[in-house]
């Protein structure tokens, strides 16, 4: 039974643009899936519909096995945007505590869980630091900690590392895989990067534009854990060539 099941999902905006058309997609518990495609292919739109941040114009998004009385993904889901979207007036601990505060958890328990999550993303000792005092990579770590502090079953990530330098991006890719291995949430990761999608994922779902649709679902059978040796291996190069070929098909002539 999938964790999330999309059937015939389409999205047409008010201006008439058909952003997503007839998407069928199953997301299994504990898997790492990347949505790969060119700008404007509907990756972010699809991610937001899974998150409940927009309703499909047609089709269904189901969460099999959830309480039938529940509506939307609720606490099952964490979302990381491309921008860290931190509260500038709050320190790192308070930013991570926000979802727990909104759920009215006792302050002592919320502080303990937020501090533990900051430590898990490598920011122990930075609890009282404000966003203006943190690097881009550190702010993204705070954002990831905030998304995971509710212990979601699925983590949706919308190009979270796109604005970072390559060294920081590689480090955060490694840290994200370590978190995924430890916490075993389902990860859905939007990216433009063939190299990033192959490094992270068990599956790469390739999307084409006009309208947004799935054209390929590629397995990535390489073993975990993955490291710099994998990045320079023949297996990695081969998988990147396959994904790159499908991305070229998505872009078209």
UniProtKB/TrEMBL annotation:
<keyword id="KW-0547">Nucleotide-binding</keyword>
<keyword id="KW-0813">Transport</keyword>
<dbReference type="GO" id="GO:0005524">
    <property type="term" value="F:ATP binding"/>
</dbReference>
<dbReference type="InterPro" id="IPR017871">
    <property type="entry name" value="ABC_transporter-like_CS"/>
</dbReference>
<protein>
    <submittedName>
        <fullName>ABC transporter ATP-binding protein</fullName>
    </submittedName>
</protein>
<dbReference type="InterPro" id="IPR050166">
    <property type="entry name" value="ABC_transporter_ATP-bind"/>
</dbReference>
<keyword id="KW-0067">ATP-binding</keyword>
<feature type="domain" description="ABC transporter">
    <location>
        <begin position="4"/>
        <end position="234"/>
    </location>
</feature>
<dbReference type="InterPro" id="IPR027417">
    <property type="entry name" value="P-loop_NTPase"/>
</dbReference>
<dbReference type="InterPro" id="IPR003593">
    <property type="entry name" value="AAA+_ATPase"/>
</dbReference>
<dbReference type="GO" id="GO:0016887">
    <property type="term" value="F:ATP hydrolysis activity"/>
</dbReference>
<dbReference type="Pfam" id="PF00005">
    <property type="entry name" value="ABC_tran"/>
</dbReference>
<dbReference type="InterPro" id="IPR003439">
    <property type="entry name" value="ABC_transporter-like_ATP-bd"/>
</dbReference>
<comment type="similarity">
    <text>Belongs to the ABC transporter superfamily.</text>
</comment>
């Amino acid at each position: 039974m999938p964790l999330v099941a999309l059937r015939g999902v389409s999205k047409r905006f008010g201006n008439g643009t058909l952003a997503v058309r007839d998407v069928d997609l199953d997301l299994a518990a504990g898997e790492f899936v990347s949505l790969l495609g060119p700008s404007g292919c509907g990756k972010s739109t699809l991610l937001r519909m899974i998150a409940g941040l927009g309703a499909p114009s047609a089709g269904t998004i189901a969460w099999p096995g959830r309480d039938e009385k529940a509506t939307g993904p609720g606490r099952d889901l964490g979302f990381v945007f491309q921008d860290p979207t931190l509260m500038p007036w709050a320190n790192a601990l308070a930013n991570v505590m926000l979802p727990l505060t909104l759920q009215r958890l006792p302050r002592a328990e919320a502080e303990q869980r937020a501090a533990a999550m900051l430590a898990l993303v490598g920011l122990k000792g930075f609890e009282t630091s404000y966003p203006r005092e943190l690097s881009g990579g550190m702010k993204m770590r705070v954002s990831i900690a905030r998304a995971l502090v509710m212990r979601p079953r699925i983590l949706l990530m919308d190009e979270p590392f796109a604005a970072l330098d390559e060294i920081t991006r590689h480090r955060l890719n490694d840290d994200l895989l370590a978190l995924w291995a430890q916490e075993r949430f389902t990860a859905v990761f939007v990216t433009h990067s063939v190299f990033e999608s192959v490094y992270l994922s068990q599956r790469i779902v390739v999307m084409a534009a006009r309208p947004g649709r799935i054209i390929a679902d590629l397995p990535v059978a390489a073993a975990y854990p993955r490291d710099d040796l994998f990045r320079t291996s023949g297996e990695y190069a081969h998988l990147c060539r396959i994904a790159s070929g499908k991305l070229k098909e998505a872009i078209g002539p």
